[in-house]
Amino acid sequence: MTGRPKLVLSSASPRRLALLEQIGLRPDALLPASIDEEPLRFERPRALAERLAVEKAQASRTVGIQDEALRDAFYLAADTVVALGRRILPKAETLEDAEECLGLLSGRAHRVYTAVSMITPSGKQRSRVVESRVRFKHLSHREMESYLASREWEGKAGGYAIQGIAGSFIVRLVGSYTAVVGLPLYETHNLLTGEGLQVHEGWRNPLEGVS
Ligand SMILES: Cc1cn([C@H]2C[C@H](O)[C@@H](COP(=O)(O)OP(=O)(O)OP(=O)(O)O)O2)c(=O)[nH]c1=O
């Protein structure tokens, strides 16, 4: 391998890209993986998140290594699953999905499992799963209607995005905020730098100096 190792983000999520860049890790390429995300029969939420993150990284690398420039890269993927006990909530695609999720989450605590999986240039795969516990306030009919109208739930696990309007629904969070948004930064940083990937030199946080 010559030069600085490259980093491929195996994701189409703009939130994952923004989180990675927030800590000075700028991917050299984005190579989202398209895999079947349907849970297996009786699959637990934590196991599902891990399996999907592992599969996304592998699928992305299978495509990436065909390109000379990305052959010796690190591949990084993640998956977020929202669960009530063993019940896995859908990634909301329709208004009905989102309505069902909000109804289930209102006034209750749930768990968010985000798995991050990395494959090193030599082909070693390492993964971590981060569990967070999130408590929602009780949502009135009006609040639900207005949130549904915002469409911020679209494509989000459990039908909400903590980084948006739904941030005001959260009574308590125990775990990792960045994991709930989609990429646990502590674990991601440790996985990558632990295998020798350097944080971008000369990188400056754009929020530096903003108080
Ligand atoms: C709970 C929650 C989820 N989400 C998002 C994170 C993920 O993008 C999405 C769950 O779907 P995922 O299947 O984890 O990811 P994705 O399909 O959006 O992106 P990719 O597989 O290409 O990486 O829900 C939020 O943005 N905020 C939240 O508060």
Automatic annotation (TrEMBL):
Main location: cytoplasm
Name by which UniProt lists this protein: dTTP/UTP pyrophosphatase
Catalytic-site annotation from UniProt: 79
Keyword Iron-sulfur: no
Pfam families recorded: Maf
Keyword match Protease: no
Database matches in NCBIfam families: maf
Entry cofactors: a divalent metal cation
Source taxonomy: Bacteria, Pseudomonadati, Pseudomonadota, Alphaproteobacteria, Hyphomicrobiales
Family: Belongs to the Maf family. YhdE subfamily.
Subcellular location(s) of the protein: Cytoplasm
EC number in record: 3.6.1.9
InterPro entries: ITPase-like_fam (IPR029001), Maf-like (IPR003697)
Site annotation Important for substrate specificity: residues: 15, 80, 163
Gene3D superfamilies registered for this protein in UniProt: 3.90.950.10
